[in-house]
Write a structure and sequence with these properties.
This protein is 36% helix and 23% strand. The chain is α/β, with parallel strands linked by helices. It has one domain.
Amino acid sequence: MRQIAIVTVLLFSVALSTPLMAKHKESVDMKGMNRIFLGWVDINPDNYHRQGYSTREEYLAVINHANTAFQENCQSKVFSGRTMTAAKSRSDENTAGNDLYVKFSDAVYDHGYRLHLSIHFIDLKTNKEIGSVPLKTYKGHLCGLEGCMNKELEEVSRELQKALAGEATEETH
């Protein structure tokens, strides 16, 4: 129990300091990038017990389902009119043939069913980050993990849509 408390304090400290270190890049025109690789929102499945799941596999199925639903939403709404390839798993980074890589990092799901993550826009021709949305908290309210994660990933898709349209994204921490 003591180790869990120490790890929690350390993770909380890192979570608080990360937004202060992250720099929000000015909006960049990504309208000409028509072939997009959408990365995986990689939530650690080993935290299944903290989220109330009895097995890692059960929790992993929820995470995988939420990623699939998020990808479908992005394909139909965010990247409509563009060619989107989506990661098939947490280790899939096969970006070949694409202009833009939308990469997610710092993805953590806390006990209050809040998703924390950063978004990175990488120009695959130069392999350089051309924009980002620093660590942000997305909140789905009054729902179980799967319902909350689906709502929060819907918020993430709206953030992506704004960024790809060249609109400034709001920073909230």
